[in-house]
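wait is this the right file?? whatever heres the structure
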């Protein structure tokens, strides 16, 4: 085990060194500054729910290029407090093999390829939120992100793409609290330009040293996307400290004009396969882009819960990018 640990440390050190060497003589350029502001109004008849406006998130990012092979990104978000959600360096060796190190999204679900500015629905599907590090069953709330190192690339003229990484398993801005590292991988195949099939897996644990619990997840997804139509669906299952869960979602959206995109979405989640509780969400919504960089969304969601009271919810929000 000691030899394996030394090997891992040595490998990471070498990768960092080789990534830095090509930029030693380069003149640094000013980073590109960007961001977004997301404001929302929500109403729900759920017992105890409050209704009203909120600033859901504010993000500020800096993207920079250190050389023709190396770039970086830093992104911070204000939600209820300021937190760093992205801070990474990428070494672009070749289209087939690249290295990313730092803090960023852990990709083992196709939905993690998207962010708030590109989500078709206002909210993540429940299964993605509960099994993908957003509001995870394990207690992790990390915007789907972690600290680690990833190999990624495209093969066979982008017909096959992959991401394989090793992570702490503790989320953003947090050191590991045990000796175990978590594995995450996502593989997707594009038999057609518009069609992508994906499979992903996360093998890990959480908890302090000596009190670790298993946290495993598996996904299988499909997406069809052309200039007008988007159809996306995925199945996810998980094992959280022995508790087996699963869920799925299916979303269809169509641009009826350059600015208007109606959508239908259905998602399902069962937190404990051995329990009685399960949840279905049915959503009817619309996305409107009146001008470039401004996205307006509105949706009605009906939640059918086998145990708790059914819920009606209306949300509308805008996302302004700059």
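ok assuming it is, sequence goes like this
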């Amino acid at each position: 085990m000691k030899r394996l640990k030394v090997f891992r440390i040595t490998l990471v050190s070498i990768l960092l060194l080789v990534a830095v060497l090509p930029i030693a003589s380069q003149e640094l350029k000013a980073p590109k500054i960007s961001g977004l502001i997301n404001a929302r109004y929500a109403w729900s008849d759920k017992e105890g729910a409050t209704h009203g406006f909120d600033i859901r998130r504010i993000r500020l990012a800096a993207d920079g290029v250190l050389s023709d092979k190396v770039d970086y990104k830093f992104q911070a978000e204000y939600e209820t407090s300021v937190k760093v959600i992205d801070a990474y360096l990428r070494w672009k060796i070749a289209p087939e093999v690249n290295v990313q190190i730092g803090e960023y999204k852990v990709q083992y679900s196709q939905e993690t390829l998207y962010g708030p500015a590109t989500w078709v629905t206002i909210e993540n599907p429940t299964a993605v939120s509960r099994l993908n590090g957003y509001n995870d069953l394990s207690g992790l709330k990390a915007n789907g992100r972690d600290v680690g190192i990833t190999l990624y690339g495209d093969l066979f003229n982008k017909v096959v793409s992959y991401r394989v990484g090793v992570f702490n398993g503790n989320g953003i801005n947090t050191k590991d609290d045990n000796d175990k590292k978590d594995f995450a991988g996502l593989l997707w195949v594009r038999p057609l330009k518009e069609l992508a099939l994906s499979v992903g897996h996360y093998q890990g644990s959480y908890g302090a040293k000596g009190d670790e619990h298993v946290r495993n997840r598996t996904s299988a997804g499909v997406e069809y996307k052309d200039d007008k139509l988007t159809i996306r669906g995925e199945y996810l299952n998980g094992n959280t400290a022995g508790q087996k869960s699963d869920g799925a979602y299916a979303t269809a959206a169509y641009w009826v004009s350059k600015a208007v995109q109606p959508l239908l979405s259905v998602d399902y989640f069962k937190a404990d396969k051995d329990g009685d509780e399960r949840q279905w969400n049915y959503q009817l919504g619309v996305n409107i882009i009146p001008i470039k960089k401004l996205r307006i969304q509105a949706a009605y969601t009906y939640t059918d819960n086998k145990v708790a009271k059914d819920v009606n919810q209306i949300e509308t929000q805008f996302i302004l990018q700059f």
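The two ends are 48 Å apart (CA to CA). so i think its the right one actually
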